[in-house]
Design goal:
Blueprint (H helix, E strand, L loop, with lengths): L1 E6 L6 H14 L8 E9 L2 E10 L2 E9 L2 H18 L1 H4 L36 E2 L1 H11 L3 E6 L5 E6 L5 E5 L3
Parallel strand pairs: 1-2, 5-6
Antiparallel strand pairs: 2-3, 3-4, 6-7, 7-8
Helix pairs in contact: 1-2
Protein backbone atom coordinates (compact mmCIF):
# COMPACT_ATOMS: atom_id res chain seq x y z
CA UNK A 1 0.00 0.00 0.00
CA UNK A 2 1.35 3.40 -0.99
CA UNK A 3 0.74 5.87 1.85
CA UNK A 4 0.79 9.65 1.38
CA UNK A 5 0.57 11.94 4.39
CA UNK A 6 -0.39 15.57 3.94
CA UNK A 7 -0.55 18.38 6.49
CA UNK A 8 -2.90 21.25 5.66
CA UNK A 9 -1.42 24.49 6.94
CA UNK A 10 0.78 22.50 9.31
CA UNK A 11 3.86 20.30 9.37
CA UNK A 12 3.40 16.63 10.27
CA UNK A 13 6.14 15.40 12.58
CA UNK A 14 8.00 12.17 11.74
CA UNK A 15 6.65 10.24 14.74
CA UNK A 16 3.06 10.90 13.61
CA UNK A 17 3.90 9.85 10.06
CA UNK A 18 5.27 6.54 11.37
CA UNK A 19 2.18 5.93 13.51
CA UNK A 20 -0.16 6.64 10.58
CA UNK A 21 1.80 4.40 8.20
CA UNK A 22 1.79 1.55 10.75
CA UNK A 23 -1.97 1.79 11.31
CA UNK A 24 -2.74 1.96 7.60
CA UNK A 25 -0.42 -0.97 6.82
CA UNK A 26 -2.63 -3.11 9.08
CA UNK A 27 -5.50 -2.39 6.70
CA UNK A 28 -3.26 -3.53 3.83
CA UNK A 29 -4.40 -7.14 4.30
CA UNK A 30 -7.74 -6.21 2.72
CA UNK A 31 -6.31 -4.51 -0.34
CA UNK A 32 -4.14 -5.43 -3.31
CA UNK A 33 -0.64 -4.02 -3.83
CA UNK A 34 -1.81 -1.22 -6.16
CA UNK A 35 -3.82 0.32 -3.33
CA UNK A 36 -3.05 3.90 -2.29
CA UNK A 37 -3.94 5.69 0.92
CA UNK A 38 -3.88 9.40 1.69
CA UNK A 39 -4.02 10.76 5.23
CA UNK A 40 -4.69 14.49 5.52
CA UNK A 41 -4.17 16.21 8.87
CA UNK A 42 -5.51 19.65 9.72
CA UNK A 43 -6.83 21.72 12.60
CA UNK A 44 -10.42 22.98 12.42
CA UNK A 45 -12.15 24.89 15.17
CA UNK A 46 -9.47 23.95 17.74
CA UNK A 47 -9.96 20.24 16.95
CA UNK A 48 -7.57 17.86 15.22
CA UNK A 49 -9.06 16.64 11.95
CA UNK A 50 -7.85 13.51 10.17
CA UNK A 51 -9.16 12.42 6.78
CA UNK A 52 -8.19 9.02 5.37
CA UNK A 53 -8.94 8.08 1.77
CA UNK A 54 -8.04 4.64 0.41
CA UNK A 55 -8.40 3.86 -3.30
CA UNK A 56 -8.30 0.21 -4.33
CA UNK A 57 -9.48 -1.31 -7.61
CA UNK A 58 -11.67 1.71 -8.37
CA UNK A 59 -13.36 1.63 -4.95
CA UNK A 60 -12.90 4.56 -2.59
CA UNK A 61 -13.00 4.21 1.19
CA UNK A 62 -13.08 7.45 3.16
CA UNK A 63 -13.36 8.59 6.74
CA UNK A 64 -13.06 12.02 8.30
CA UNK A 65 -12.80 12.33 12.06
CA UNK A 66 -12.31 15.24 14.46
CA UNK A 67 -10.97 14.68 17.96
CA UNK A 68 -8.83 16.24 20.67
CA UNK A 69 -5.66 14.50 19.41
CA UNK A 70 -4.49 13.12 16.09
CA UNK A 71 -3.89 9.69 17.67
CA UNK A 72 -7.51 9.43 18.81
CA UNK A 73 -8.70 10.67 15.43
CA UNK A 74 -6.51 8.07 13.70
CA UNK A 75 -7.94 5.21 15.76
CA UNK A 76 -11.48 6.34 15.00
CA UNK A 77 -10.81 6.89 11.29
CA UNK A 78 -9.28 3.41 10.86
CA UNK A 79 -12.22 1.95 12.76
CA UNK A 80 -14.67 3.71 10.39
CA UNK A 81 -12.96 2.19 7.34
CA UNK A 82 -12.90 -1.29 8.94
CA UNK A 83 -16.59 -0.90 9.68
CA UNK A 84 -17.27 0.02 6.03
CA UNK A 85 -15.43 -3.11 4.93
CA UNK A 86 -17.33 -5.31 7.39
CA UNK A 87 -20.74 -3.99 6.47
CA UNK A 88 -20.11 -4.55 2.77
CA UNK A 89 -17.77 -7.55 2.80
CA UNK A 90 -19.86 -9.69 0.41
CA UNK A 91 -20.07 -6.93 -2.18
CA UNK A 92 -16.43 -5.99 -1.68
CA UNK A 93 -15.02 -9.53 -1.80
CA UNK A 94 -14.58 -9.31 -5.60
CA UNK A 95 -12.80 -5.95 -5.41
CA UNK A 96 -10.55 -6.54 -2.45
CA UNK A 97 -7.43 -8.69 -2.32
CA UNK A 98 -8.21 -12.39 -2.76
CA UNK A 99 -8.20 -14.06 0.64
CA UNK A 100 -8.73 -10.74 2.43
CA UNK A 101 -11.31 -12.31 4.75
CA UNK A 102 -9.65 -15.73 5.16
CA UNK A 103 -7.95 -14.86 8.43
CA UNK A 104 -11.16 -13.29 9.70
CA UNK A 105 -11.84 -9.68 10.37
CA UNK A 106 -10.23 -7.92 13.29
CA UNK A 107 -12.55 -8.52 16.25
CA UNK A 108 -13.45 -5.40 18.19
CA UNK A 109 -16.18 -7.11 20.18
CA UNK A 110 -18.96 -5.46 18.20
CA UNK A 111 -21.39 -7.32 15.99
CA UNK A 112 -21.93 -5.80 12.59
CA UNK A 113 -24.82 -6.93 10.53
CA UNK A 114 -23.93 -6.98 6.90
CA UNK A 115 -26.33 -5.08 4.68
CA UNK A 116 -28.40 -7.67 2.84
CA UNK A 117 -29.60 -5.54 -0.03
CA UNK A 118 -29.82 -1.88 -0.85
CA UNK A 119 -33.29 -0.37 -0.77
CA UNK A 120 -33.31 1.94 -3.75
CA UNK A 121 -35.97 4.54 -4.37
CA UNK A 122 -35.88 5.67 -7.98
CA UNK A 123 -36.70 9.16 -9.09
CA UNK A 124 -36.72 10.63 -12.60
CA UNK A 125 -36.69 14.28 -13.59
CA UNK A 126 -35.73 16.48 -16.50
CA UNK A 127 -32.30 18.08 -16.27
CA UNK A 128 -32.56 21.77 -16.93
CA UNK A 129 -29.55 23.85 -17.94
CA UNK A 130 -28.71 26.31 -15.15
CA UNK A 131 -25.82 28.05 -13.47
CA UNK A 132 -24.20 26.74 -10.29
CA UNK A 133 -25.77 29.59 -8.32
CA UNK A 134 -29.24 28.72 -9.64
CA UNK A 135 -28.69 25.06 -8.73
CA UNK A 136 -27.70 25.99 -5.16
CA UNK A 137 -30.75 28.20 -4.85
CA UNK A 138 -33.00 25.39 -6.16
CA UNK A 139 -31.39 22.89 -3.75
CA UNK A 140 -32.04 25.25 -0.83
CA UNK A 141 -35.63 25.87 -1.92
CA UNK A 142 -36.22 22.10 -1.97
CA UNK A 143 -34.37 21.73 1.37
CA UNK A 144 -32.19 18.97 -0.10
CA UNK A 145 -28.57 18.09 0.69
CA UNK A 146 -27.64 17.87 -3.02
CA UNK A 147 -29.01 18.79 -6.43
CA UNK A 148 -28.29 17.34 -9.89
CA UNK A 149 -28.35 19.74 -12.84
CA UNK A 150 -26.95 20.38 -16.31
CA UNK A 151 -24.35 23.17 -16.34
CA UNK A 152 -25.51 25.90 -18.71
CA UNK A 153 -21.93 26.70 -19.79
CA UNK A 154 -20.42 23.25 -20.32
CA UNK A 155 -23.56 21.18 -20.88
CA UNK A 156 -22.22 18.55 -18.44
CA UNK A 157 -24.22 16.91 -15.66
CA UNK A 158 -23.08 18.26 -12.28
CA UNK A 159 -24.04 17.95 -8.63
CA UNK A 160 -24.01 20.70 -6.01
CA UNK A 161 -24.11 19.70 -2.36
CA UNK A 162 -24.07 21.21 1.08
CA UNK A 163 -20.91 20.44 3.05
CA UNK A 164 -20.76 19.74 6.79
CA UNK A 165 -18.92 23.03 7.34
CA UNK A 166 -21.84 24.97 5.82
CA UNK A 167 -20.14 25.69 2.49
CA UNK A 168 -21.18 24.24 -0.84
CA UNK A 169 -19.44 21.75 -3.09
CA UNK A 170 -19.63 21.08 -6.83
CA UNK A 171 -19.04 17.71 -8.46
CA UNK A 172 -18.27 17.84 -12.17
CA UNK A 173 -18.24 14.56 -14.09
CA UNK A 174 -15.14 13.80 -16.16
CA UNK A 175 -14.83 11.09 -18.77
Amino acid sequence: MKVTIVGRQMNVWEEMKTIIETKLEKLGKYFNDECSATATLSCKHNKKCLEITIVSSGTIFRSEVQDETFRNALDKAVYVIERQIRKNKTRLAKRLRSGAFDGGIIDTGEDFEEEAEFNIRRKSFTLKPMSVEEAIMQMNLLDHEFFVFKDDKSGEVCVVYKRKDGDYGLIEAME
